[in-house]
Amino acid sequence: MSQVPRPGDRLPTRTFRYTRERLVAYAAASGDHNPIHWSDSRAAAVGLPGVIAHGMLGMGVAATAVTQWAGERATLIEYGTRFTRPVLVPDTADGVDLTVDGTVGDVREDGTVRVDLTVRCAEQKVLARTRAVLAYDR
User: Fold this and answer.
1) Which residues form the MaoC-like domain (predicted)?
2) Are 51 and 29 in contact (CB under 8 A)?
């Protein structure tokens, strides 16, 4: 985005593929090696319906979607979300897709921009109240 966005501007929908391989790579990078993120039997043992993605991975890809859209002139200064449901990742080559889109909700008097994001897997919201605040270079 080359100019400061306006309320109502929309982010393009981005799709991020989750596979078990990606979960293992994220575990190595983050240090979160909890077996619910790679082992069906361990996930079942704690009552989960299958292997689930790391929640912070979902936060990260949503932040990536907004910062790439915003461009180099913007700095992410606030970011938050609530986890609403786990992302089940099947043991297949195709995995599962997470989609991220959003709308500029407000341009504040101080020039910062609030972006409201929607994060879904299989058409169900997996994150709620996902909001990013951007500051733009003037």
Assistant:
1) 14-118
2) no
